Amino acid sequence: MYVNNKKKACEYCNIHSEEYTFDENVKEEALLELIDCLNASKSIHGILVQLPLPKHIDEKKIINAISEKKDVDAFTPANVGKIMIGDYDFLPCTPAGVMELIKESGIDVKGKECVVVGRSNIVGKPQAMLLLHSHGTVTICHSKTENLKEVTKRADILVVAIGKAKFITADMVKKGAVVIDVGMDRDEEGKLCGDVDFESVKGVAGAITPVPGGVGPMTIAMLMKNTIKAAAL
Ligand code: GUN
Fold first, then answer.
1. Which of 50, 58, 108, 187 is flagged as catalytic?
2. For a Cys-Cys bond, which of 46, 132, 194, 219 suits 94, CB 3.0-4.6 Å?
């Protein structure tokens, strides 16, 4: 679903895209060889390795092989480091999409209590950094956080990316809070849903993003933005 949506967005933007699919038993060398070839290509400006990779593949090694100038996901150590110091070419797509939603909704992050639930390299950690760059007071929570509800209830802006269906319930949210749901989960009936129990939380939140149709399309829009930027580097 992710890959198809990315391909459709490329078509919409008139960006040429190529998809390489492999058998799940693929050897690491084959992936590295392809990345080397794409790194050297004059006609390819962006490279994206859709995660997760099969267990036998060293994900770090594969990501590290991507040229930092073509790293449109901003996953390589060089680009992650640049995000830390606030001097970057590419922003990671999902956290950048979240920031764009906040900005376009007229919400000022400055001085606000921002709570990020989840500490992944793809979302939680870079999200916290972007909120910090916007002068938020940032807390990162995760599966080992004690009294999670007490922390989430302090949030003026709550970003949830833990991958647990409908995990955040109304009693965990402050009245009027901005709630941004990065989750892509399945409920008991197999229906797509987020990490936030939308039906109960919408009565408490001042603003809330739905799943699907919230952060997901923003992630893809940011990927297009990074790709166009990469072409100009
Ligand atoms: N898997 C889940 N989210 C993402 C993403 O944003 N980029 C890539 N490459 N893989 C993912």
1. 50
2. 219
C-alpha span between 169 and 171 (Å, rounded): 6
Q: Whose CA is nearest to atom 11 of ligand 1?
A: 51
Q: From the CB of 94, is ligand 1 less than 6 Å away?
A: yes
* DSSP-based three-state secondary structure for 129: helix
Homologous superfamily in CATH for domain 2-83+218-232:
Leucine Dehydrogenase, chain A, domain 1 (3.40.50.10860)
Cβ 226 under 6 angstroms from ligand 1 = no
Domain 2-83+218-232 matches domain 93-214 at the CATH topology level: yes
pLDDT level of residue 16 (50, 70, 90 thresholds): very high
Q: Tell me, yes or no, if 73 is annotated catalytic.
A: yes
- Does residue 1 carry a pLDDT above 90? no
As given in the structure block, the two tokens for residue 75 are 């996953």
Mean pLDDT of the chain: 97
Residue with tokens 């799943």: 211
For domain 93-214, which architecture applies?
3-Layer(aba) Sandwich (3.40)
> 122: Cβ below 6 Å to ligand 1?
yes
Tens of pLDDT, residue by residue over 108-119, are: 999 999 999 999
User: Of 11, 123, 82, whose CA–CA distance to 131 is shortest?
Assistant: 123
User: What are the sequence ranges of the domains in the chain?
Assistant: 2-83+218-232, 93-214
Residue from 71, 73, 156, 197 carrying the catalytic annotation: 73
62 neighbors 49 (Cβ within 8 angstroms): yes
Q: What pLDDT, on the 0 to 100 scale, is given for residue 87?
A: 92
The residue whose CB lies within 8 Å of the most ligand 1 atoms, and thus the one to mutate among 63, 73, 79, 225, is 73
59 has a pLDDT exceeding 90: yes
